[in-house]
């Protein structure tokens, strides 16, 4: 019997320095029955030529060139073109272990799950390697357990690339495409929507996806796109609240945490445009933030100080940070 076909979708925009590394890692997969869909999203560097050169070397590669429309639109184009039994995503500046898709597929089939996830390694700008394994989880997760993991990001985050999805989840008629109006955390929202269509997920404990932070994807900087972090968290809260009080409480905490984080980043950037709105949103579920077991007392005090006195807190912390030569804020997590 022929092995199932896996469609690997790679959105590409100006990543010429990393693209060959990503594509070589996909071509090296021990699961060889692949359909590799490269969506060049209007790159202005040498990425289109690299895509075409790889397509000439391997017939499994199919290249789509389009005008720049954003990563969500590029992924949707890839989904529309995919013909595989399973769907995977790889970012063009990352790489994957040679056994990733073999292991993800085996876990999905053995546990009869439509979603399979593995651990990952995140390489930070300062050289720190953050290893995230799923080895403390059961091999098969219920829907509630998987949603808790996705919402909290404790064991596997909300991004698409360390996961494998059965194609049936993306069939027409379902709301299972990326929202092209969302520029940040769009993958978290889609993952929650997909999990609501399933009975859970299977886990591969090993860290098989290699995620590289760069200046252009570091989530610690502020831009208008970061506002969608709060928008997504609101949608997630609405989706999971009917399921259980535990999920509702968890989603409220991460809503508040995201709002406080974006508020702090707006203060850091000196952006006053969204200050009023961000202060309101950071206080909306502040009680849930302060009473949660998701973070420690020190971080609760700091978070509350930012929510209630954002500009004063930033000014005081900035002086303290400079004096002690320390860095508190990492990513969007308090």
Protein described:
The protein is an alpha/beta fold and 334 residues long. The chain folds into 2 domains: 6-212, Spore Coat Polysaccharide Biosynthesis Protein SpsA, Chain A (Alpha-Beta Complex), CATH 3.90.550.10; 224-324, no CATH class. The chain is 43% helix and 18% strand. The protein contains 12 helices and 10 strands. Strands 1, 2, 3, 4, 5, 6, 7, 8, 9 and 10 form a 10-stranded mixed β-sheet that branches. A hairpin with a 5-residue loop joins strand 6 and strand 7 (129-132). Helix 7 runs antiparallel to helix 8 (245-269). The longest helix has 25 residues, at 245-269. Mean pLDDT is 87; it is low at 326-334.
What's this model, at a glance?
With 334 residues, the chain is α/β, with parallel strands linked by helices.
Query: Per DSSP, what share of the residues sits in E-state strands of 2 or more residues?
Result: 15-25%
Instruction: Give the name of the CATH architecture of the largest domain.
Output: Alpha-Beta Complex
- Give the distance, in angstroms, between the N- and C-terminal Cα atoms: 50 Å
Q: Output the CATH class name of the largest domain.
A: Alpha Beta
Q: Which ranges are low-confidence, i.e. pLDDT below 50, for 5 or more consecutive residues?
A: 326-334
Instruction: Give the topology string: H per helix, E per strand.
Output: EHEHEHEEHEEEHEHEHHHHHH
* Residues in helices, as a percent range: 40-55%
How many DSSP helices?
12
Number of domains: 2
């Amino acid at each position: 019997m022929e092995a199932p076909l896996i469609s690997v979708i790679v959105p590409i925009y100006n990543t010429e320095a990393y693209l060959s590394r990503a594509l070589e890692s996909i071509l090296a997969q021990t699961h060889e029955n692949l359909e590799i869909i490269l969506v060049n999203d209007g790159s202005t560097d040498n990425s289109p030529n690299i895509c075409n050169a790889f397509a000439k070397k391997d017939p499994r590669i199919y290249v789509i060139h389009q005008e720049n429309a954003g990563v969500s639109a590029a992924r949707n184009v890839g989904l529309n073109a995919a013909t595989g039994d399973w769907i995977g995503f790889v970012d063009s500046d990352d790489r994957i272990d040679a056994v990733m898709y073999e292991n993800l597929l085996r876990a999905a089939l053995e546990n009869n799950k439509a979603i399979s996830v593995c651990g990952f390694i995140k390489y930070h700008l300062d050289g720190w390697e953050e290893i995230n394994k799923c080895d403390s989880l059961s091999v098969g997760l219920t829907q509630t357990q998987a949603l808790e993991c996705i919402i909290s990001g404790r064991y596997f985050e909300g991004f698409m690339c360390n996961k494998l999805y059965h194609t049936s989840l993306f069939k027409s008629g379902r709301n299972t495409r990326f929202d092209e109006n969302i520029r940040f955390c769009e993958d978290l929202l889609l993952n929650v929507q997909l999990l609501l269509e399933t009975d859970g997920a299977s886990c591969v404990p090993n860290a098989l996806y290699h995620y590289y932070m760069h200046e252009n994807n570091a989530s610690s900087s502020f831009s208008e796109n970061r506002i969608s972090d709060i928008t997504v968290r609101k949608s997630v809260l609405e989706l999971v609240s009917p399921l259980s009080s535990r999920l509702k409480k968890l989603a409220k905490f991460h809503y508040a945490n995201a709002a406080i984080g974006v508020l702090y980043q707006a203060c850091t950037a000196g952006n006053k445009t969204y200050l009023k709105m961000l202060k309101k949103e950071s206080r909306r579920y502040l009680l849930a933030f302060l009473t949660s077991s998701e973070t420690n007392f020190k971080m609760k005090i700091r978070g509350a100080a930012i929510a209630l006195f954002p500009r004063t807190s930033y000014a005081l912390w900035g002086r303290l940070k400079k004096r002690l030569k320390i860095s508190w804020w990492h990513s969007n997590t308090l």
